[in-house]
Amino acid sequence: MGRTVGRTLLWILAAGLLLSACNDGDSDVQLDRAAGSDSAQSPDVADPGDGSASDADLRSVMWVGNNWDGTATVVDANTLDVLKTGIDLIPDKDQELADIFANPVDLAFYYLIRFGPGEGHDQYVDDMFTTEDGRYLAVSRPSFADVVWIDIAKVTQGAGVDAIVREQDMDGQRTDHMALSPDGRRLLVSDSTSRQVIEFSMVDETGPDGSAVKMGDRLRSFVSGETPHESNFNRAGETIYHASIGRVYTPGDYPDVLPELLGPAQEAIKGDRWFQIVRNEDFEILARWNMGLELEESGYAGMSPAVRPMAISHDERYIYYQVSYFHGLIEFDTQAPDVNGQQDYVNEGLAEPDFGAVSRVVPLPNLVPNVPREEYVNDSAHHGLSLNESGDTLCVAGTVDDYVALVDRQTMAYSLFNTASTGNDYLKPYWTTEGPNDTCWISLSGADAVAVLDTRRHEELAFLPVGNHPQRVRLGQIPERVIMNW
């Protein structure tokens, strides 16, 4: 343990110096990237309204982002056939790297991402969503700290850089998770190092003030804690559930070790880790919790406040979430009163809400009890949680345990899927997504594969080879006329 703690102490020092360099107003280093700028390669933005296919001409597909490859794989969401793989989502890689290597701060963060959250690899593709007409794919690219909008027909025909129709850089140095509004009009992007979530347009339209809004335009932002992570819209698109996870690449994982250093300083090392409910209409923060303190208030002391993936019940009463280091999940009742009825803490001006309480803590098997926390993937014991269409079964990625669990929402009884039970390599499951027909899609990042489970019958339906280190899997659509040319 001493060796791993020592190594990660170097990481926190490096990260602190880099963050200081970026945020210091007196720094002599100026960033070349301009937030909200269009791509230099493609100044003309294609109009997503021209020639869009009708609904009957669209096919439902699952997009798989192969993070370390910088590619995507497309799978038919109903037949489970792989339609195309190796789609290049970084055709501008040479130019991006040239820009990064020309700027000392960008270069430092580029390597920090590689050897921190990237586990020694560049992070080229984190998240993706298609536009409603299926013509464009929005992609967040952590190592390039940007979001690009890519013409699907062009990129799948080898158009290269010309397939990128829009690019937007972050204010900070890394992009992460994204969320698409239910109507397909707005995209939320976590700006990892700038404590904010940025909203972009996914359509061309006329704004409320009569101004023209183009696909890829930057619109609004709301504040987050340290390292904004996942956002989810409710079904009506009126509410956003958001969590920040803190500096998962730093030490402080063992608060009982060297308590003089790590105990009192843990919050400073890891940073603010908040769970927020945001009103979409005006981005007002309606509620902000420290889930570690909420867990302690309910009798579960010593658990992390860093909310990882989450799932929201269809009636929006219950939030299911994972936290760092915990093998299992937590159920949080948003309609329950606060446990002690007191405002015990304040998060940057917002007091603890008088509602919301942990209702259940559900442990799942820890199959690696001797693995130190410092070797968990970015502090995650489990990283991946979704709720099926029927709303009765949770799908859990047991990341360091190399299994997937289907969990009954009422009883919390579970079935495990792993190499022993399926005969396939269930290595480092990193994400789960609900699919059509009550399916769960799991990225098996250590096996370069995706598994598809039937959440009703608790059966494996498919095991599909994809690219290098698949992470996010998202439901989208593509015009049939595009697929016909593959």
Automatic annotation (TrEMBL):
Residue span of region Disordered: 30-54
GO molecular function terms noted in the UniProt entry: kinase activity
Protein name: Serine-threonine protein kinase Putative secreted protein
InterPro entries xrefs: Host-pathogen_enzymatic-act (IPR051200), N2O_reductase_N (IPR011045), WD40/YVTN_repeat-like_dom_sf (IPR015943)
Keywords: Kinase, Signal, Transferase
UniProt key word Kinase: yes
SUPFAM superfamilies attached to this UniProt entry: Nitrous oxide reductase, N-terminal domain (SSF50974)
